[in-house]
Design goal:
alpha/beta, Nucleotidyltransferase, domain 5, about 20% strand, globular, EC 3.1.-.-, hydrolase, YqgF/RNaseH-like_dom_sf
Length: about 140
């Protein structure tokens, strides 16, 4: 089952795609976010183009587990994405994925300009790999859900 992950941000939206077996995540794209409606339509189009069966949207919780305004915006976007794609959309805790992605890129000696271009896709990849690993741990991969 192909799964698409969305790292929703104020300026950009990072996307990552699983392989057909749902085992490995890879960066797909970074989209500029002009409006939520346009972004939802573009993500839905990419999902269809890649044969995606489920979409996972990162939910930015606070460190204490509570949700703030950013999480509320992500939930609103997820609802728009459900309507635009007709696919199941699931929220998944994304705490610290962007920080981890930034550390990885710095460690790999990626320049500041290039980091800005790929950071959101790398964060979406970390989000999706965490989601895939959690599904596998629960025995939900490969249609055993």
């Amino acid at each position: 089952m192909r799964i698409l992950a969305v790292d929703y941000g104020q300026a950009r939206i990072g996307l990552a795609l699983s392989d057909p077996t749902g085992m490995v995540a890879q960066a797909l794209a970074v989209l500029p976010r002009r409006s939520d409606a346009e972004a939802a339509a573009e993500v839905a189009r990419l999902a269809q183009d890649h044969g995606v069966e489920r979409i996972v949207v990162g939910l930015p919780r606070n460190m204490d587990g509570s949700e703030g305004e950013t999480a509320a915006r992500c939930r609103r976007f997820a609802r728009q994405l459900t309507a635009a794609s007709g696919l199941p959309v699931e929220m998944y805790d994304e705490r610290l994925t962007t920080a981890a992605a930034e550390r990885m890129l710095v460690a790999a000696d990626v320049g500041r300009r290039k980091r800005r271009q790929v950071l959101d896709a790398v964060a979406a990849t970390l989000l999706l790999q965490g989601y895939l690993d959690a599904r596998r741990a629960k025995g939900e991969a490969d249609g055993r859900a």
